[in-house]
Amino acid sequence: MKKDSQNTDPDRLLRYRDSIYAADLLVCAVACLDFFTFLSEGPKTFDEICDKMEIQPRPADVMVSLLLSMELIETNAHRYGLAELSAKYLVSDSPDSLVPYYRSLKNRPQCLEFHEVLKTGRPAGWSSKDKGDSWTKSMENPEFADTFTAAMDSRGAFLARKLAETIDVSQHNALLDIAGGSGIYACSIANRNPRLAAAVLEIPPVDLAAKRSIESKGMSARINVVAGNMFDKIPTGYDVHLFANAFHDWDIDAVTTLAANSFKSLSPGGFIAVFDAHLNQFKTGPLSVAEYSCLLMHSTEGKCYSTKEIGDILMSAGFGRVEVTDVAADRTLISGKKL
Ligand SMILES: C[S@@+](CC[C@H](N)C(=O)[O-])C[C@H]1O[C@@H](n2cnc3c(N)ncnc32)[C@H](O)[C@@H]1O
């Protein structure tokens, strides 16, 4: 029987799914890189880690955040060193070493893929599909795009409702949900704000999936779908730009371009709303976000950014009054105003 106090928020279920790649990255760090033995020589800077391990900054950054969040490494004065637990158990020549135990799993496909992503910086196939296309390429296939968009829609049933309860658009007129997927965020926010006009910008063929999904929610009269590429042009006439779970698919240069495109086309007085799983400013947690970042680093060109990284990008694009608000399930809303 259900207890009165039982929490039915799906936080745990989201986390089980989103953290699925994290343990493989730990195995890869221990068994493929022998990373902790390397650190046992003494604390290293991030650049030294990348140079000596011959790994690329984007995946290396995700690995370092994961190990910091797991409290397996520590940071001091921009150097990373061993924590007590890893010094005892994850260094090859320690008498208590568990390295051989981890090494016995190093041929797991996901572990080998991580080694490749770390070395090249290029993402592996979505869902570790053998010789599969990258996520960006896969999204050009209408069948994959439909399945992926339905997945995003199901996650949005909870998260979009929570965001709609949090975001204040009462002084604004028109929202553009950029890379809006099924349009569930635009629908939820429009439902809660009857005066607000709303549209979804999506790249073909996902624009068609968005149209179908919006129609199935009975929202076609309120939510327009615009087909287009957010890197080329963001349509004008909107005073709220929502990027929900969109920045995390791209590297930092691409995210910088998106923020600049947004600032250019947003109406004066409007604001950008970045909704995502963000690391804290020191990139030491939350652990659930550091774990999710492993999946994104493995399968896309992105990762989970920190609140500081996004804040800095928004400010350099020209946005002011940058604010961070907790929403739900370790997701945050970062907003910045075009003053
Ligand atoms: C992770 S999904 C997030 C979808 C939605 N915002 C959500 O949270 O449910 C990322 C979306 O970005 C869209 N996308 C990728 N590249 C794009 C581009 N160049 N222009 C517009 N949308 C793009 C994809 O089609 C996909 O729907």
Automatic annotation (TrEMBL):
<feature type="domain" description="O-methyltransferase C-terminal">
    <location>
        <begin position="131"/>
        <end position="319"/>
    </location>
</feature>
<keyword id="KW-0949">S-adenosyl-L-methionine</keyword>
<keyword id="KW-0489">Methyltransferase</keyword>
<dbReference type="GO" id="GO:0032259">
    <property type="term" value="P:methylation"/>
</dbReference>
<dbReference type="InterPro" id="IPR001077">
    <property type="entry name" value="COMT_C"/>
</dbReference>
<dbReference type="Pfam" id="PF00891">
    <property type="entry name" value="Methyltransf_2"/>
</dbReference>
<keyword id="KW-0812">Transmembrane</keyword>
<dbReference type="InterPro" id="IPR016461">
    <property type="entry name" value="COMT-like"/>
</dbReference>
<dbReference type="InterPro" id="IPR036388">
    <property type="entry name" value="WH-like_DNA-bd_sf"/>
</dbReference>
<dbReference type="GO" id="GO:0008171">
    <property type="term" value="F:O-methyltransferase activity"/>
</dbReference>
<keyword id="KW-0808">Transferase</keyword>
<dbReference type="InterPro" id="IPR029063">
    <property type="entry name" value="SAM-dependent_MTases_sf"/>
</dbReference>
<keyword id="KW-1133">Transmembrane helix</keyword>
<keyword id="KW-0472">Membrane</keyword>
<protein>
    <submittedName>
        <fullName>O-methyltransferase family 2</fullName>
    </submittedName>
</protein>
<feature type="transmembrane region" description="Helical">
    <location>
        <begin position="20"/>
        <end position="39"/>
    </location>
</feature>
